[in-house]
Amino acid sequence: MEYYYGDIYISHTKRIEITMSHLTFKIVEVIKKSNPEQTHSIEIMHYALSIILNTLFIIIASLCIGGLTGQLKETFLALFSFMLLRMSSGGVHLKSARSCNIVSIFICSLIPHITYLIHNHFIWINLFSLLVMILCAPNPDANAQIPKEWYLGLKIISIILVSLNFWIHSFVIGLAFLVQSFTVIIPLQRRSIK
Questions:
Q1: Taking the domains of the chain in order of start, what are their residue ranges?
Q2: pLDDT in tens, 62-119
Q3: Which one has a higher pLDDT value, 83 or 10?
Q4: Total-model pTM
Q5: For residue range 114-144, what is the model confidence (pLDDT) as tens digits?
Q6: DSSP 96
Q7: 73 and 111 in contact (C-beta within 8 Å)?
Q8: Once rounded to an integer, what is the mean pLDDT over residues 34-54?
Q9: Which of 135, 146, 181, 184 suits 38 as a labelling partner, its CA being 20 to 30 A distant?
Q10: Which of 92, 20, 30 has the alpha carbon at shortest distance from 56?
Q11: CB-based contacts of 120-126 (< 8 A; 24+ apart in sequence)
Q12: What is the C-alpha to C-alpha distance for residues 60 and 56, in angstroms, rounded to an integer?
């Protein structure tokens, strides 16, 4: 029975992804036709707009699940915390938009429901996240083209964000930061961009 619901979810996600890609292409065509001289290529605009629409899909789907399960505020907090730390610390990306959507929605919807598991380990989880930020952040994607001069500032922002949770003492934020910390720890070959 579990596999049946998982298959339905993946099937719907595929359909949504195809629809979003088609919608993105139509929007980009309209933008290009309205101003062909001062716009980027269709491929570049399609890529950028698909990132925006995928992010919106993750946010909306996660918040819908959070609302249906009575954890709307906590789901919003998990999403916001994860995204905020990710902007400054970077991290690995999954290979496809579909896998990113599925994993992100699953994680951001799950975090509010499992906070009871970390009550006795809150300090250790925060310390682990802080240590990862000190040692590994920032770890931007190679396509991000972030100047190396900004790395120290991004590291400091990441450290401050995680450190604030020692004062806020939020289990949801702690778990969101923990998950984001795992995305920052990556194989050494990517570290060579620093």
A1: 2-191
A2: 999 999 999 999 999 999 999 999 999 998 888 888 888 889 999 999 999 999 888 8
A3: 83
A4: 0.81
A5: 998 888 999 999 999 999 999 999 998 777 7
A6: S
A7: no
A8: 82
A9: 146
A10: 20
A11: 122/169, 122/171, 122/174, 123/166, 125/174, 125/175, 125/177, 125/178, 126/162, 126/165, 126/166, 126/174, 126/177
A12: 6
CB 162 within 8 A of CB 191: no
Average pLDDT over residues 25-49: 81
The residue with tokens 């190679």 is 142
Q: Is 90 exposed, middle or buried (0-12, 13-18, 19+ CB in 10 A)?
A: buried
d(Cα 62, Cα 192) in Å, to the nearest integer? 34
Tokens of 162: 């995680």
46, amino acid identity: H
- The rounded distance, in Å, linking the Cα atoms of 92 and 82 is 13
